[in-house]
Design goal:
By secondary structure, the protein is an all-alpha fold. Helix content is 72%, strand content 0%. The relative contact order is 0.10.
C-alpha cells in the first residue's frame, strides 16, 4: 500500500476536523458565516504550512492555534470594526435545548473582549489546561488565570440561570 501524498493526508485531516474547527470558530466569533470564513482562512494557512503541521505531534492543537491566532489577528484590524454586522440571523435550534439560556449565553460570550473569549473557549470548550492555553495564546499562566476569572465573572453577571423545572411566564 502506497504512502498517502501530502494533499491526501491534508484532505483527510481537514475532512475529519472541519466540524470541530467550525464549532470552535463559532464560539470565538458568535456568527456562523464569520466562523466559516475563519475556518476557511485557517485551513488555507494550514495547507501552506502542512509540511510543519503534518509533522506536529498534536495536529489538532496546531490547527486550533492557527484558528485562534487568525481570530485574534482579525480583531485587531480596522476592516472588521468597519464591517461588523449589526444584526445576526438566529441559528437553528437543537431539540431539547433551552433556547433562551442558549441565546443569553451566546450573547454574553460574544460581548467578552476577544482575548477573554478565546481564553474561555480554549479552557472550557476545548478543555485545555491553564498551561496549554497559555502556550496557545502566547502568554503567561497567570494571564490565562486572570483572563478566565474576569471572563467568568462577566458571564455570571450577564447570564441569569433559571432553576430547573421553573417555567417562565
Amino acid at each position: 500500500m502506497a504512502e498517502p501524498t501530502r494533499d491526501e493526508e491534508f484532505t483527510a485531516f481537514v475532512a475529519s476536523r472541519a466540524v470541530w474547527l467550525r464549532k470552535v470558530a463559532y464560539l470565538l466569533c458568535a456568527d456562523w458565516h464569520r466562523a466559516d470564513d475563519l475556518v476557511q482562512e485557517s485551513i488555507t494557512k494550514l495547507y501552506t504550512h502542512w509540511g510543519r503541521a503534518g509533522r506536529a505531534e498534536n495536529r489538532d492543537g496546531y490547527a486550533r492555534t492557527v484558528l485562534v491566532n487568525t481570530f485574534l489577528a482579525e480583531q485587531r484590524t480596522a476592516w472588521w470594526r468597519r464591517t461588523r454586522p449589526s444584526a445576526r440571523p438566529l441559528d437553528a435550534v437543537v431539540p431539547g435545548t433551552d433556547l433562551a439560556l442558549s441565546l443569553d449565553l451566546r450573547e454574553a460570550l460574544a460581548a467578552l473582549p476577544p482575548r477573554q473569549r478565546a481564553t474561555v473557549v480554549l479552557r472550557y470548550f476545548c478543555d485545555l489546561t491553564v498551561e496549554q492555553t497559555a502556550a496557545e495564546l502566547g502568554c503567561s499562566s497567570g494571564n490565562v488565570k486572570s483572563q478566565s476569572s474576569r471572563a467568568l465573572e462577566t458571564l455570571r453577571g450577564s447570564v441569569w440561570l433559571r432553576p430547573a423545572g421553573r417555567v417562565e411566564a
